[in-house]
Amino acid sequence: MPLLCLAGLFTSCVNKTSDIEDLLEKMEVGKEFAEEVEILYSDSAIVRAKIVAPVMVMDLDRNTESQEFPKGVVVDFFDDFQKVSSNLSGLYAIRYIRKGQVVVRDSVVWQSVSGDKLETQELIWDEKAEKIYSDKFVVISRPSEIIYGHGFEAGQDFTNARIKAVEGRILLDKE
Fold it and tell me: So where are the chain's domains?
């Protein structure tokens, strides 16, 4: 009987290389998954943004390191007094860490507390250049005007906005 058990031990530990490769592929080695994520970003001990997402996938590869939010993201931006100054949402987002770039896609909406609103299908934040932009169709709504355009660029705090190929109703100052 002991000889039979010993024979079974040696034959039961055989794995096919293809089985191991399939398992490693399914495991997605080099990725971390998190649910119900809340991330705070601060500068000089002052919270500047809060990111909330149902799922985050962190790619840990040094060449492609990223934070992906495949089920959407909501970002609250804060002023110097820790009051929410604006809000950004999209159904998909990814942050390329080495590149210093954030891409938000699909039903992207940014809204300020003063009532300004930007809607587009893609918004890109270049962290290094400190600007946001889109080459897609955009709609900017303000209490007194609605502006349509193809392409948009602004400072990372949504100031100094410039719309390319402008269309729509624009309120002009009377002088």
Answer: 28-169
Residues 28-169, CATH architecture: Sandwich (2.60)
What residue spans of the chain are helical by DSSP H?
A: 2-11, 17-27
Residue pLDDT, tens place only, 62-117: 888 999 999 999 999 888 888 998 999 999 999 999 998 999 999 999 998 888 89
Across 152-173, average pLDDT? 79
Grouping H, G, I as helix, E, B as strand and the rest as coil, residue 61 is: coil
Give the 3-state secondary structure of residue 9.
helix
Q: For residue 135, how many C-alpha atoms fall within 13 Å in the half-sphere facing its CB?
A: 1
Q: Is 130 left (phi over 0), alpha (psi -120 to 50) or beta?
A: left
Q: What angle do CA 59, 96, 67 make, to 5 degrees?
A: 45
How does DSSP classify residue 81? T
Instruction: Kindly report the pTM of this predicted structure.
Output: 0.75
